[in-house]
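Structure first, sequence second, as always.
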């Protein structure tokens, strides 16, 4: 109940922010602009609609996750409202988890808003309903949860500017981290290989949750790969949240 109360309060604060609605509206407009872009291309218009639309929704949902998450904990510390919270019978772990679930609910509302409008737009434009896009949005949501957990982790001990830099950096690395797994085969020294292995497993592998190309190119989706990706996301989110709780528990407020 304590986690639920913090989560709902976090959600209410997030949806009061005008930037939240601005990002949703702009994300929808960019997704709908895929129709114009498809008219200017020589390729398959349906593929262009899906590619540009899904990429736009992905981009703006990531922005919401980052720029909302980096302020969640820091804002409480900066405004000193954290003293009122920790003075009550609420553990610091409940506080972190409540913030995470509140941000998760915020992202769910944002993603559903964009997804519903995009589905209607796609149905009107192409006359078809690609149910596999639902799977794309489901995996995207778990990617957003990973980003949310990372942003809350940095927010628990750093300033918003540094938190945004760290989170954006990990997001970008997360989409190319698979290269470290390939790069290790070119390394000769054992220490260098071990470092490559360590870096590969520590950094988030967000490409595991990205099936946009599979959807656009109409490639068959393997259920075991999807299951493994979801399991990876849950494990990584849990690890990051545990680390955030450990850091926040040791933080001293003056």
């Amino acid at each position: 109940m304590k986690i639920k109360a913090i989560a709902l309060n976090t959600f209410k604060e997030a949806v009061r922010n005008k930037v939240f609605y601005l990002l949703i509206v702009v994300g929808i407009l960019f997704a709908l602009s895929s129709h114009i872009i498809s008219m200017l291309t020589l390729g398959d218009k349906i593929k262009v609609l899906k590619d540009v639309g899904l990429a736009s929704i992905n981009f703006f949902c990531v922005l919401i996750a980052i720029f909302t998450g980096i302020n969640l904990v820091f804002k409480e510390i900066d405004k000193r409202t954290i003293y009122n919270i920790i003075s009550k019978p609420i553990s610091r772990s409940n506080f972190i988890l409540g913030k995470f679930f509140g941000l998760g609910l915020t992202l769910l509302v944002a993603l559903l808003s964009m997804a519903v409008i995009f589905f209607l737009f796609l149905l009107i434009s192409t006359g078809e309903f690609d149910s596999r896009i639902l799977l794309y949005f489901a995996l995207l949501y778990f990617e957003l949860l990973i980003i949310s957990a990372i942003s809350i982790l940095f927010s628990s001990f750093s300033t918003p500017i540094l938190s945004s830099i760290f989170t954006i950096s990990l997001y970008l690395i997360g989409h190319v981290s698979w290269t470290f797994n390939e790069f290790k085969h070119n390394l000769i020294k054992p220490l260098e290989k071990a470092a490559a292995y360590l870096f590969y497993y520590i950094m988030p592998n967000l490409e595991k949750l990205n099936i946009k190309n599979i959807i656009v190119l109409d490639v068959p989706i393997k259920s075991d790969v999807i299951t493994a990706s979801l399991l990876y996301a849950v494990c990584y989110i849990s690890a990051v949240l545990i680390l955030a709780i450990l850091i926040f528990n040791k933080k001293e407020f003056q």
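Margin note: The CA atoms of residues 163 and 169 lie 10 Å apart.
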